[in-house]
Amino acid sequence: MVVDKHEQLAPLDTDRPALSVVVPIYNEAESLPHLLKAITTNLDALALTYEVICVDDGSSDGSTEILRQQTEVYPYLRAVLLRRNYGQTPAMAAGFNYACGDVIITLDGDLQNDPSDIPRLLAKLDEGYDLVSGWRKERQDAALTRLLPSKIANWLIGKVTGVSLHDYGCSLKAYRAELVMDMKLYGELHRFLPALAFIEGARIAELPVLHHARQFGQSKYGLGRTFRVLMDLLTIFFMKKFLTRPMHVFGLFGLVCMILGTITGLYLTVLKLGLGQSIGDRPLLILAVVLFLTGVQLFSFGLLAELSMRTYHESQNRPIYRVREVLGADKPMPPM
């Protein structure tokens, strides 16, 4: 029994669990019973009250019915059923909103993350960290389609965000609840949670964890998400550098464009007035200027739209998901 290690995590409110385990679920019918059993076995050994929140992200393989059954078996289980498939980030956001614990653990529902690592994450968190990220040091995935793109992405994300982790994509993480409650997630931003936490001043640690080959079903990840991840990486970079000072980026681009336009105009003026040349038959020059200015405008509009969208959602406190039904754990709890 582990007692003294995690006593400090117990909340003052006895009706509130000390630990919340958030598991996004999408078509994991075969894995679910084994996952819940493994979570129960490992967490029952701790002197902690806990809850498990499974967010069904519009599954179509019977996962929903299995969750209905399991809520009758496990009194600590809450199943949040989303109306359709929104994606992992909204599912994660729903789990955070329904979590009551002082500490939140996230992991995948495919049995590749091992619940036996949860006590180690909690122990590391007790050392004074706000977020502990798992590192799949011996990852059991395809080398070409999963491992190589992941290594490149982890290096690139570390360079852009300034938070160097070996494994940004590992879902097995431990958070202090107050850290994630202040975060608004959009797009594919769930994988950038350490970078978002770093922006908020969080203390971050990384811990090697077990990783198993997939036993059931098929992977939901592929190279198709690369573009979306890159776009969100640009968003994170902007948030880290210019969120409170957007003029520093927009002003810089505007100044560069004005300087280029002035130099081009002076050059054409010299050709026209000084050398008497015709400047009306230079389509390449006109095309280059138009393409450059259009690119700057599109980039700027994209960033402005991102900021406007965040302002819209956060000012109205609108979630990016819709819940159809909540099962188990007594009464449904609305999002904060």
Helix/strand-derived category reads alpha/beta
Alpha carbon gap, first and last residue: 34 Å
| Number of continuous helical runs | 10
Strand arrangement across the biggest beta sheet: 7-5-6-4-1-2-3-8
Rg is 25 Å
**SSE order:** EHEHEHEHEHEHHEHHHE
Number of domains: 2
pLDDT average, as an integer? 79
Residue fraction in strands: 5-15%
**Main sheet properties:** 8 strands, mixed
* CATH homologous group name of the largest domain: Spore Coat Polysaccharide Biosynthesis Protein SpsA, Chain A
Q: Would you write up a description of this structure?
A:
With 336 residues, this protein is of the alpha/beta class. The chain folds into 2 domains: 7-241, Alpha-Beta Complex (Spore Coat Polysaccharide Biosynthesis Protein SpsA, Chain A); 246-316. The protein contains 10 helices and 8 strands. The protein has helices at residues 32-43, 63-73, 88-98, 118-125, 143-161, 177-181, 193-199, 226-242, 247-274, 283-316; strands spanning 19-25, 50-56, 77-82, 103-106, 131-136, 173-176, 204-209, 323-327. Strands 7-5-6-4-1-2-3-8 form an 8-stranded mixed sheet, with helices on both faces. Strand 2 (50-56), helix 2 (63-73) and strand 3 form a beta-alpha-beta unit. Helix 9 (247-274) runs antiparallel to helix 10. The model is unreliable at 1-13 (pLDDT under 50).
